[in-house]
Design brief:
Blueprint lengths: L1 E5 L2 E4 L6 H19 L11 E6 L2 E6 H5 L4 E2 L4 E3 L3 E3 L1 H4 L6 H10 L2 H7 L7 E10 L8 E10 L2 H11 L8 H8 L29 H7 L2 E3 L4 H12 L3 H5 L5 E3 L10 E3 L8 E3 L6 H12 L1
Parallel strand pairs: 5-8, 10-11, 11-12, 12-13
Antiparallel strand pairs: 1-2, 3-4, 6-7, 8-9
């Protein structure tokens, strides 16, 4: 369903349908809009490709992608069955032929992804973190975050994303590899992060499904912002079964807890609790670390 239209740009609600099917419908609509507004589209799988030395690893890259003056990467922040996280760096696989994609898998994904980003570089990155899947690239466990963010450095971008999803860089090898190869920085402490338009969606409680729904029982939500709730859900997904069983009956989260007391809370709104994860919103890593160090 089209929810908003701004000329050649439209925002659609996929109603949490099957990922690849929604992607096909979105691409078909994009082709229609391109024809209507005279925007050139290139199917990279019909394009020619040339071989480049990507920091010691030869990789075929589509010629159209290398010919652009300014490369904008539009990844979705989501989980992945093999690499755990997929965002800016892995999204660059879209500029290589299918034969190379198959070779990437034979090489183990992490190394070729890192090497690809030494040559195929991004000038600007806009990350869709509106409703990414918790742990699988084809959907099934959507987590509503209602966030968009932009970056210039794909390595720093993915370092930030990993942190938001409860992972360290060491757990996502291609991020650290890309940093070591000079494709960007993994030093999140040196990043200049500006938060614009803070979440104002209190009262619109997320409605997780699948695995996310099973984790919701550990949270007592009261007018929580989507970004805070998503961070808590991602952190809970990283806990083992034994750890989940050792949690208090409920973890409080949301603006309804401002000025109130309690046992354990998540986010700045629960700062009056005996134990509270700081941040507005806290990252999934911050929630995970706090729970393991202070609660479990």
């Amino acid at each position: 369903t089209c929810e908003s239209s701004m000329g050649a740009i439209e925002r659609w609600n996929g109603h949490r349908g099957f990922g690849p099917l929604n992607a096909k419908l979105a691409m078909d609509r994009a082709v229609e809009l391109a024809r209507e507004y005279g925007v050139a589209l290139v199917d990279t799988q019909d394009d020619t490709a040339s071989r480049y030395d990507c920091a010691g690893l030869p990789i075929e890259i589509c010629d159209a992608a290398m010919a652009v003056d300014f490369m904008i990467n539009l990844p979705v922040m989501k989980g992945h069955g093999q690499t755990y996280v997929t965002c800016a760096l892995k999204n660059n696989k879209g500029v290589i032929p299918n034969t190379e994609k198959r070779r990437f898998h034979s090489l183990g994904l992490h190394k070729p992804i890192a090497h690809l980003n030494t040559v195929c570089k991004n000038d600007f990155i806009v990350v869709d973190a509106l409703c990414g899947d918790l742990d699988y690239e084809e959907g099934g466990n959507p987590v509503v975050s209602n966030r968009l963010f932009a970056a210039l450095d794909p390595v720093l971008c993915d370092t930030f994303v990993a942190n938001e999803m409860g992972y360290t860089v060491d757990e996502i090898p291609y991020i650290a590899m890309a940093g070591d190869l000079g494709a960007g920085s993994t030093d999140l402490s040196a990043a200049h992060v500006r938060h614009l338009n803070p979440a104002a969606d209190a009262g619109a409680s997320p409605k997780p499904t699948g695995k996310a729904r099973s984790l919701a029982r550990y949270l007592r939500e009261g007018s929580a912002c989507s970004s805070c709730y998503a961070a808590a859900t991602r952190a809970l997904s990283r806990l083992g079964r034994g750890e989940l069983g050792a949690l208090p009956d409920t973890l409080c989260i949301g603006q309804d807890y401002k000025g109130r007391s309690g046992a354990v809370g998540i986010g700045q709104c629960t700062q009056g609790f005996a134990k509270s994860v700081p941040g507005c919103p806290p990252s999934a890593t911050a929630v995970l670390d706090y729970l393991r160090k202070e609660v479990l």
